[in-house]
Design brief:
With about 80 residues, this protein is mainly α. It has helices spanning about 10-20, 25-40, 65-80. It is elongated. It comes from Knoellia remsis.
Length: about 80
Amino acid sequence: MRTTVTLDDDLARLLSDRQHRERKTFKQVLNEALRAGLTVAPAEPETYRHRTHRSGVRPGFDITALNRLADELEDEETTAGGSA
């Protein structure tokens, strides 16, 4: 396929340098560069690891008090015009 492409000066210089160094045509060098750039496989994402810890309620802590507090806060929000 024939097409017209406008290259930045630095890219044209890199392609020309490679063309002379590898003794290939400009078309070959350009096609190889495009092919290499367009066929790069995406990197595999790193596996996310999360360390878990044992949790629990400390001795003497009343979990029901926390539930009562949450209920009270929800009631206050409802009476203040918010949504629950």
